Amino acid sequence: MSTAEPLPVRILEGHIPYRDGSEERILEVLTAASDRSSDSDELAAAITDWPSRYHLSRQRASLLRPLRLGPGLRILEIGAGTGVLSRYLAETGAQVVALEGSVERARAAATIARMACERAKERNPSDDWVRPTLIGMAFDSGDVVAAEELYDQLLQEGPAAWKLETTLADVEVSVSQAKDAEVRAGLQAVLDKLKALVR
User: Fold this and answer.
1) Which pLDDT tens digit goes with each residue over 56-69?
2) Count of beta carbons in the 10 Å neighbourhood of residue 34
3) 87-104 burial code (b ≥16 CB/10 A, e <16)
């Protein structure tokens, strides 16, 4: 998946205009980083002021370390910000749904989510929801190239591993919400191929 593509942010209703002014820089740092883990030296090196410390510090995860977190847990994080704690929660193996009212912060959190899904797929290929989440992210963000790449992976692994039957309705919504006609057509073409696999 291309890191230059916009990442999936589904706006449910409204937008909270809270910003500390560092969101664009944080998104740039996260996009450029090769290590986005919660203990990343690379992210720690990008800390230059209070806002970047708030968004990138390894110490934020220390709030959660005493808790028994891990695979099998489902966590709803409300007010996820740029995904600092979401990142750590996902690294424990928990399933995380992160809600954020600021679109700019949600885009940064989506960068973390994509990385977490890709790492989780490598570490634990039996995780049931990583693959459908990656498909949803590709379609939500309008990333036709990523959707095509995931379709190719799906062909190799089979529709059952990707929970395709449960994912198609959400993917259809994402296609209908794509604003660019060319992107919508590209996503629709991939969606049609996905539908053909479950008929």
Assistant:
1) 998 988 999 999 99
2) 7
3) bbbbbbebbbebebbbeb
